[in-house]
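Quick one from the shared queue. A colleague (R.T.) flagged Phosphotransferase as missing a structural entry in our internal table.

Convert sequence to C-alpha cells.
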Amino acid sequence: MADVKEIEVVVAHRERATLRVGDVFLKIDADQTRTDAEVEAMAMAPIPTPEILWRKPPVLALAALPGTALGRLGEPSTASSAAWAAAGAAVRTLHDAPLPPWPGRSLDEIASELDGECEWLVSNGVLPTDVVTRNRRVAEAALRPWTPVFTHGDLQVTHVFVDGDDVTGVIDWSEASRGDALFDLATLTLGHEERLGDVLAGYGTDVDLDVIRAWWSLRSLRTARWLIEHGFDPEPELAVLRSRR
C-alpha cells in the first residue's frame, strides 16, 4: 500500500462509493444492511468471491480479483466463448446451492415498480411511448411464478472476472437473495445477446428464452431512471429497449 500513487474512484453516488487503492477495494455504503447481506452472501456462495480483508462500518475492504471483467455493457466483449461458458457454469453452481435465509423481492413488488418506471420514462420524455409500451408487453413474460434459487441479484457482465477461459471470481453481492434463476442469466447477457448460447452451454439446462428476453426489457425499464438520477449514462440500457421488437 505504501507504493500507491493514486486512488481510483470506481463508482460513487449518494448511496455508496467504491474506491480502489492499489490492490484493495474500499466499499463505503450508507446502508449497512446491504453490506451485511454482501458479507453473508459471499460466505455462502459456492463460487469464487473477493477476499474480505477487514470491515469497519461503513467501510468494507476487499482484495482485488485476478483477471479482468468478462465484458462491459455497450461494448463488444473480447472474452472467449469458453470464458462465457465458464461464467454460465459458475451461475449454475450458485443456483444449485442452498437458499440464503433472506427473501428476495416479490412478484407484486416487481410488477408495481415496473408500472411506475414505465410511466416515469414516458412522462419525462426519456423514451417514446411506443418503445416503452412494446417493452412493457415483452416484460410481461417474466412476471410469472418461479422456483426460488440462490441468485446474485446484480450479475452484470462487469461483475464477473475471468483469466483466460476461467472464472476467477464474482463481485458485488449486496443484492443477493432468493430469486428467479433466469433473472441472473438475463442480467449477465444484457446487451450481449450473441453470447447467450455460450452461457447456456455452460449453464447446462434448457431455459425459456422468452423469459430471458422479458428480463432484458424489464431490467432496462427498471434501471433507466436510477441511472439518470444518480448521474450515470443510461444509453446502453436505452439501446437495449430500442432494439426490442
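The chain has a mean pLDDT of 95.
Residues 16 and 233 are 17 Å apart (CA to CA).
Added to the table.
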